[in-house]
């Protein structure tokens, strides 16, 4: 009986974590949507000023590009967490049980390897431009800021891939135990 209660509390804990993660993801998507609307507003103001009043807002284009970089990288983390990223899922969509978990593990390993590699390359680049004190032309922002958004995105994706790998490896192992117990 105690084992059953422990199992139920573990499931409830996992469901609570999954629910919290879903709410955080939804809030992040909402915020990213607002940022995209802000980019459109900046573009409208800048284009209106340029064509109607022969005045352009200094740094507007840079600000829009940097905001889009942030939105794309944050969106990529969310897409990976929800498995909404671009992938070939023809085989996993037909696979069941252990095979499906095995395919997810392979996908997670590939995502982890790619994002760790990209995060490392991004880190090296951010270090280099920090040493050179490179700044944007219009706003004079340190270029480490937009490039750190790229770095943070790859690190975030690597962390998500590691969590997915742990979860899918566990699911594969549990499914293997259930298959062994059934036979």
Automatic annotation (TrEMBL):
<keyword id="KW-0472">Membrane</keyword>
<dbReference type="InterPro" id="IPR055348">
    <property type="entry name" value="DctQ"/>
</dbReference>
<comment type="subunit">
    <text>The complex comprises the extracytoplasmic solute receptor protein and the two transmembrane proteins.</text>
</comment>
<dbReference type="GO" id="GO:0005886">
    <property type="term" value="C:plasma membrane"/>
</dbReference>
<comment type="similarity">
    <text>Belongs to the TRAP transporter small permease family.</text>
</comment>
<feature type="transmembrane region" description="Helical">
    <location>
        <begin position="145"/>
        <end position="166"/>
    </location>
</feature>
<keyword id="KW-1003">Cell membrane</keyword>
<dbReference type="InterPro" id="IPR007387">
    <property type="entry name" value="TRAP_DctQ"/>
</dbReference>
<protein>
    <recommendedName>
        <fullName>TRAP transporter small permease protein</fullName>
    </recommendedName>
</protein>
<comment type="function">
    <text>Part of the tripartite ATP-independent periplasmic (TRAP) transport system.</text>
</comment>
<feature type="domain" description="Tripartite ATP-independent periplasmic transporters DctQ component">
    <location>
        <begin position="40"/>
        <end position="168"/>
    </location>
</feature>
<keyword id="KW-0812">Transmembrane</keyword>
<feature type="transmembrane region" description="Helical">
    <location>
        <begin position="102"/>
        <end position="125"/>
    </location>
</feature>
<dbReference type="Pfam" id="PF04290">
    <property type="entry name" value="DctQ"/>
</dbReference>
<feature type="transmembrane region" description="Helical">
    <location>
        <begin position="63"/>
        <end position="81"/>
    </location>
</feature>
<keyword id="KW-0997">Cell inner membrane</keyword>
<feature type="transmembrane region" description="Helical">
    <location>
        <begin position="30"/>
        <end position="51"/>
    </location>
</feature>
<keyword id="KW-1133">Transmembrane helix</keyword>
<dbReference type="GO" id="GO:0022857">
    <property type="term" value="F:transmembrane transporter activity"/>
</dbReference>
<keyword id="KW-0813">Transport</keyword>
């Amino acid at each position: 009986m105690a084992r059953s209660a422990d199992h139920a509390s573990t499931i409830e804990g996992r469901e609570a974590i999954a629910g919290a993660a879903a709410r955080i993801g939804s809030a992040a998507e909402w915020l990213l949507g607002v940022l995209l609307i802000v980019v459109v507003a900046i573009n409208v103001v800048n284009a209106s000023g340029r064509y109607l009043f022969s005045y352009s807002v200094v740094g507007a284009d840079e600000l829009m590009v940097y905001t889009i970089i942030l939105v794309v990288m944050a969106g990529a983390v969310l897409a990976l967490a929800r498995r909404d990223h671009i992938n070939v899922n023809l085989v996993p969509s037909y696979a069941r049980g252990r095979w499906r978990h095995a395919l997810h593990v392979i996908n997670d390993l590939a995502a982890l390897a790619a994002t760790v590699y990209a995060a490392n390359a991004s880190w090296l680049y951010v270090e280099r431009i920090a040493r050179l004190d490179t700044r944007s032309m219009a706003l004079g922002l340190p270029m480490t800021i937009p490039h750190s958004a790229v770095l943070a995105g790859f690190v975030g994706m690597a962390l998500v891939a590691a969590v997915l790998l742990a979860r899918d490896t566990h699911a594969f192992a549990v499914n293997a135990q259930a298959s062994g117990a059934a036979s």
